[in-house]
Amino acid sequence: MRYAIILAPEAIEDLHRFKASVRSTVCDAIEQHLRHEPTKSSKSRIKRLRGTSRPQYRLRVEDDVRVFYDVKEDTVEVLAIVRKSDADQWLKEHGEADETDSAV
Description:
Layout: E1 4-7, H1 9-16, H2 20-34, E2 46-48, E3 52-54, E4 57-61, E5 65-72, E6 75-83, H3 84-94, E7 96-97
Parallel strand pairs: 1-6
Antiparallel strand pairs: 2-4, 3-7, 4-5, 5-6
């Protein structure tokens, strides 16, 4: 199945903050990993996030870039593209807690 990929306006802004070579690498990774199997978790690349309803997934691009995204039917919505060092802060500010998880 081929998924449509939509970049949120914020993700487009995020992408423009990177150098051209990094932008190219990120775009290639999005096309390669999210176009056909965006929910296929792997140890090193795609991770299903726990405890959040949004974003649902994280794609690791090289060592320093993280792409946060949701999958709905046949569409992948890229929410943010951030450096690894900023990923936790982004999740705290923009992530939505999963209502079904019981926090103790």
